Amino acid sequence: MGWFPCSGDSFRKAKNKKKMKMQQKTLDRINSIPDKLKMNSSLRVKEASEDGASDQITAQTLTFRELAAATKNFRSECLLGEGGFGRVYKGYLESINQVSRLLNIGMMQVILCLLQDVAIKQLDRNGVQGNREFLVEVLMLSLLHHPNLVNLIGYCADGDQRLLVYEYMPLGSVEDHLHDLSPGKKPLDWNTRMKIAAGAARGLEYLHDKAKPPVIYRDLKCSNILLDRGYHPKLSDFGLAKLGPVGDNTHVSTRVMGTYGYCAPEYAKTGQLTLKSDVYSFGVVLLEILSGRKAVDTSKAAAEQSLVAWARPLFQDRTRHSLIADPELQGQYPPRGFYQALAVAAMCVHEQPDMRPVIADVVTALAYLASQKYESDAEKVQSPCLDPGTPTRTKRDKERKLNGGRGSERERTRKLK
Ligand SMILES: Nc1ncnc2c1ncn2[C@@H]1O[C@H](COP(=O)(O)OP(=O)(O)OP(=O)(O)O)[C@@H](O)[C@H]1O
Ligand SMILES: [Mg+2]
Questions:
Q1: Those residues with Cβ within 8 angstroms of residue 238's Cβ, 6 or more apart along the chain or in another chain
Q2: Among the options 51, 209, 219, 354, which is catalytic?
Q3: Separation of CA 188 and ligand 1 centre (Å)
Q4: What pLDDT was estimated at residue 110?
Q5: What are the φ/ψ torsions at residue 76 (nearest 5 degrees)?
Q6: Pair 85, 121: CB distance under 8 Å
Q7: Phi and psi torsions of 287, nearest 5°
Q8: How many Å separate Cα 268 from the centre of its chain?
Q9: Strand 4-5 relative to strand 257-258: parallel, antiparallel, unpaired?
Q10: What is the pLDDT of residue 281?
């Protein structure tokens, strides 16, 4: 899916002279930053280190020659996919964090070269995105660091070549696991879906609440949530990100950009961007995770093409909630948990931005749902002697020990009911 300027009108307005001057000023400011990074490639940025966020980063500058070598000259067999920015290749780079070692094995000296797998995104010079998105991406990912944001390893600005080098995400994007599954590919189970939703929400919470000033992501969608080992989600693609409002301001005004189906209605209409615009996009993502449907699907009947428009009347009617559930789940989900997750999605896609929750509250709800492990019928058959959800004796004992003999979190929650 590509980016779009949501309205032609706003695009024409953007051509207005005054605005152009201001944009040029901003561009000049952003332009100067990668130069600073180049001069000091070990630029350190102090960041909030709560919830595992690292307090320093190092974005490396790499040469085009190094990246060509890493991808066997951008050979088609290394191609991972293509988006609005350009093609994405898998590559192997000499590990930046670990120094190559000289090993003495008997009479032989062996140079142990540690290779790191990376994803290399090459700007398509004829594409819809350009230098500005490249600069914003480098700037944002150099300053922001969190376990639920993809890590920028380095970048290359050689002549007119613009490349971004990320840590490689072995399980691809959430989109790859939800829609148009190839035969034999296992659909995501309920627990994994909740883990992904909670992790993506945490990434967004970091941008909204921990970054100073807050960052509005503007491009939250399933193809931008990448999956590390164990389906650990990380947000990617920050080329559209904007620094959020500061002080008494409630919004920033900007040319409308985003992806059809994910864009908050008030932002599409007015160009006024708030943190709640991201919360709306998150609601659409959560609906996709629950329903397995695409945000926009033109292959469906008119009334079902927009996921939000199709799902909204169903939110009100609890007897019809099961119609929303992804058929790929084959009924293997907790009805109560499903209802609660759906209620979160419904609040996030509320027409009125003020009625949408803040992302911190979404994190609290989804972290709880993710902690409630669901046992599928197949798993229950494998352990028929135990009450579903009953931890094994040793596990239960361990939990008791960790909780000072008070029993597990789960047991305590049960007692409260
Ligand atoms: N770090 C990464 N590790 C592994 N695969 C990646 C990585 N980054 C991107 N990809 C894959 O490359 C493909 C293209 O990604 P890209 O972000 O360029 O486009 P997109 O998200 O599909 O669309 P858009 O340009 O609208 O964001 C996707 O299939 C994605 O899964
Ligand atoms: Mg993307």
A1: 136, 137, 140, 141, 144, 217, 219
A2: 219
A3: 19
A4: 60
A5: -60, -30
A6: yes
A7: -65, -40
A8: 21
A9: antiparallel
A10: 98
Crossing angle of helices 307-315 and 335-348, in 10° steps, is 120
Rg of the Cα trace of the chain? 23
- How far apart (Å, rounded) are the C-alpha atoms in residues 108 and 368? 56
- Is pTM beyond 0.90 here? no
Which of 121, 43, 119, 138 is CA-nearest to residue 86? Answer: 121
Q: Which atom of ligand 1 is nearest to the CA of 259?
A: 26
Q: Which residues pair with 161 in a beta bridge?
A: 158
> Which pLDDT value is given to residue 113?
63
52 lines ligand 1 (CB under 6 A): no
- Annotated catalytic, 219? yes
Q: Whose CA is nearest to atom 20 of ligand 1?
A: 83
Return d(Cα 154, Cα 247) in angstroms, integer.
33
The position carrying tokens 């193809």 is 223
Q: Locate the ligand 1 atom nearest the alpha carbon of residue 166 and give its number.
A: 1
**Amino acid 151: pLDDT:** 95
End-to-end CA distance of the chain: 45
Q: Which residues contact 190 (CB under 8 A, 6 or more apart)?
A: 329, 332, 333, 334, 337, 374, 376
Residue 199 Cα distances to 149, 174, 188, angstroms: 10, 12, 15
Residue length, the chain? 417
Give the chain's residues under pLDDT 50: 1-57, 98-100, 387-417
Enter the tokens of residue 242.
């904007």
Domains of the chain plus CATH, in order, are 39-168 (3.30.200.20), 169-372 (1.10.510.10), 391-417 (no CATH)
Alpha carbon 363 to its chain's center: 14
Name which residue sits closest to atom 26 of ligand 1, judged by CA: 2
Instruction: Output the pLDDT for position 111.
Output: 59
Compute, in angstroms, the gap from residue 89 CA to the centroid of ligand 1. 10
